[in-house]
Amino acid sequence: MKVLIVGDVFSKLGRASFQKNVKKIKEQEQVDFIIVNGENTSHGRGMNKNHYKWYMEQGVDVITLGNHAFHNKDILEYIGDAENIVRPYNFSEDSPGKGYVTMHCKGLKITVFQVIGKVFMNSEHGNPFKAAKKILENVESDIYICDFHGEATSEKIAFALAFDGKIQIVFGTHTHVQTNDARILENGTAYITDVGMTGALDGVIGVKKEIIISRYLNEVAERFSPENTGKTQFNAILVEIDENSKKPANIDIINVIE
Ligand SMILES: [Fe+2]
Ligand SMILES: [Fe+2]
Predict the structure, then answer these.
(1) Cα of 46 to ligand 1 centre, how many Å?
(2) For residue 155, how far is its CA from the centre of ligand 2 (angstroms)?
(3) Three-state SS at 153
(4) Which residues are close to ligand 1, an ion, with C-beta < 5 A?
């Protein structure tokens, strides 16, 4: 079974790059399951209903979110009914939406969940390690896939090693920069610290560079606006899972600049 996981799709260029590259990969590879991080899909902040429907048309199986989960208020109208959207499980219990979903693919149960990190993030969230433990103890599944949405590389690799062999795929999101450390860990977990973003190449993690440079240089906070012109980057991983042993056999990184 091949699982394609695409990192944070950012605004207009991200959506265009996603559509083009996912179509191409599907033509070249037998992709069975697609996960995308959608927290930046609509103007860089959140995901509106039209974009959710658009993902469904592209054959996406599960969409994960992150710290921008509810920044586009549209989502509050439909997340309750959506069966395949995942927000961080360690958000407060009364948050809208679900922290995990269990889907069926090729006769196997696949549970996709998300946790959000605490290092350099809003520290009010629950402990991501304890949250993952709770899911593994309470949700029966053949395959577990976790999106660790966090800033700190140390927190992400510590998480992956803590659950090595128990969660089949741990992939990081949020930094928008693809890391060069994709591998299968000792006990069988396929891991990457960050999948990287899909969207503008020459912005600052998706945002127009002038706005962010001015923020740092002049210490003037301007409203964020996505970079909608120039080259794009498409960042993803493709993980092959052996259906008999239910263990990852291979992890490949995909990085397309065009
Ligand atoms: Fe993001
Ligand atoms: Fe994020």
Answers:
(1) 9
(2) 15
(3) helix
(4) 8, 39-40
Tens digit of each residue's pLDDT (9 = 90 or more) over 146-163: 999 999 999 999 999 999
The whole-number average pLDDT for the span 162-167 is: 98
The closest of 190, 195, 185, 198 to 253, measured between CA atoms, is 195
**Ligand 1: distance of its center to the CA of 74 in Å?**
18
Beta strands in the chain (DSSP E): 2-6, 33-37, 62-64, 85-86, 100-105, 108-116, 143-149, 169-173, 183-184, 190-192, 199-200, 232-242, 247-257
> In residues, how long is the chain?
258
pTM: 0.98
Alpha helices in the chain (DSSP H): 11-28, 49-57, 75-78, 128-138, 153-162, 209-217
Q: Treating both helix axes as pointing N-terminal to C-terminal, what angle do 128-138 and 153-162 enclose, rounded to 10 degrees?
A: 30
Active site residue 68: yes
> In this structure, are residues 131 and 89 in contact, taking their beta carbons and an 8 Å threshold?
yes
Residue among 1, 5, 2 nearest 170 (CA): 5
Q: Which domains does the chain have, with CATH numbers?
A: 2-257 (3.60.21.10)
For residue 63, what are its two tokens? 């969409």
Q: Is 221 helix (H, G, I), strand (E, B) or coil?
A: coil
The CA 55 to ligand 2 mean position distance, Å, reads 19
